[in-house]
């Protein structure tokens, strides 16, 4: 691929990723605040509506997008991008009843967008170039997650939670336009049965993402409510805290963009260690400073975990297989987003939000032990490449 084509590819990926992730994250963090303090939902109901958003994404990602052929998938992708732009401003007019339908529609539209951007980013044949582009893609995710909450924090100093959805609408419109420029990989005509779930790279990606997405889903749904209810901060401060969290995530992804990881295992275990430390700090925090410090630490594994999972898939699947693998992987992430907020909301009702975060620690440690069984196969791919290079 020449430099001009590469730069065009890079520009489209970064721009659309920024627009979609910034607005999507805004939805995930603002809906819990809106339904809790404007509609007076219980903790359990807050968890369930967060799950509804992920359920819609799971349906289109895992059950529809992964089964479509290239031409149909491209049409579905563009249609979903346009639908997302139409649905986002509807949150401004939502009621305690319609918010459930609007959240489901937003989730359904998002399910076809992110997996296909990932697949597009992974089209390059050269492993190092591909992994560098994937790292830049995840870097764009992090930049959007810093800029989005920072923008929302500024908006909330003068406007309401409902108004935020209108301010983010231009990003959804931009994403709908950019969807026309996303390319799709050519698929082989012969039908080859692919068992995604048995691939050790896929197992590594899933277990790795579970170690962080479980606490992250809980933080998205209840972190803001915890800060408002127990630390008595404003809505603007809540979104500023999320921006702080995503700043260290951004730093981690800058590191991966500069130095694509040779060993997924080493980076994964470092991320798990920081996740446990961050959760312990939330459990023991008694003021805003300690809570903010815990979020700063938790941002680093957020920045590391997702790129490591994407890289695990790109190393162990052929280009024509990656759509199915990425769609299935994204669907697993959405299942986490369905189950965790629902269960976490129920637990928070019983023991309180702070202790709910503490109960996640044993789960992370068990997953860490399970990860050891599969991650070695992903790193073996790189070792094989190194051995295959002729010595001069």
Automatic annotation (TrEMBL):
Transmembrane segment boundaries: 46-64, 76-93, 99-121, 133-152, 164-184, 205-227, 233-256, 268-286, 292-313, 325-347, 353-371
Boundaries of every Major facilitator superfamily (MFS) profile domain copy: 9-376
Domain of life, per lineage: Archaea
Gene3D superfamilies xref list: MFS general substrate transporter like domains
GO molecular function: transmembrane transporter activity
Key word rRNA-binding present: no
Pfam families, per database record: MFS_1 (PF07690)
Keywords, ordered alphabetically: Membrane, Transmembrane, Transmembrane helix
Protein name: MFS transporter
């Amino acid at each position: 691929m020449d430099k001009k084509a590469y730069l065009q590819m890079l520009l489209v990926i970064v721009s659309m990723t920024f627009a979609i992730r910034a607005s999507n994250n805004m939805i995930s963090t603002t809906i819990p605040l809106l339904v809790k303090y404007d509609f007076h939902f219980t903790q359990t109901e807050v968890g369930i509506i967060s799950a509804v958003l992920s359920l819609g994404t799971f349906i289109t990602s895992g059950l529809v997008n992964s089964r479509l052929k290239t031409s149909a998938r491209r049409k579905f992708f563009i249609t979903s991008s346009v639908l997302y732009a139409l649905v986002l401003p509807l949150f401004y007019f939502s009621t305690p009843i319609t918010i459930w339908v609007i959240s489901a529609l937003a989730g359904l539209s998002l399910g076809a967008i992110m997996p296909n951007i990932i697949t597009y980013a992974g089209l390059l044949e050269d492993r190092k170039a591909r992994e560098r582009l994937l790292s830049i893609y995840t870097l764009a995710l992090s930049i959007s997650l810093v800029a989005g909450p920072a923008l929302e924090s500024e908006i909330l100093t003068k406007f309401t939670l409902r108004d935020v959805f209108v301010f983010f609408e231009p990003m959804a419109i931009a994403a709908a336009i950019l969807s026309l420029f996303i390319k799709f990989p050519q698929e082989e005509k012969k039908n080859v049965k692919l068992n995604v779930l048995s691939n050790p790279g896929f197992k590594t990606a899933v277990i790795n993402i579970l170690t962080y997405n479980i606490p992250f889903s809980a933080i998205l749904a209840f972190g803001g409510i915890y800060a408002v209810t127990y630390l008595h901060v404003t809505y603007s401060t809540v979104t500023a805290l999320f921006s702080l969290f995503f700043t260290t995530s951004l730093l981690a992804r800058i590191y991966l963009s500069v130095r694509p990881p040779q060993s997924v295992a080493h980076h994964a275990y470092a991320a798990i260690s920081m996740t446990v430390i961050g959760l312990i700090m939330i459990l023991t925090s008694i003021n805003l400073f300690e809570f903010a410090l815990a979020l700063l630490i938790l941002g680093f594994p957020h920045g590391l975990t997702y790129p490591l999972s994407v890289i695990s898939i790109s190393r162990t699947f052929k280009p024509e297989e990656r759509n199915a693998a990425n769609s299935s992987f994204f669907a697993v992430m959405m299942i986490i987003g369905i189950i965790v907020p629902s269960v976490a909301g129920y637990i928070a009702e019983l023991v309180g939000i702070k202790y709910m975060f503490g109960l996640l620690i044993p789960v992370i440690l068990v997953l860490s032990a399970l990860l050891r069984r599969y991650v070695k196969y992903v790193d073996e791919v790189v070792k094989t490449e190194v051995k295959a290079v002729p010595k001069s």
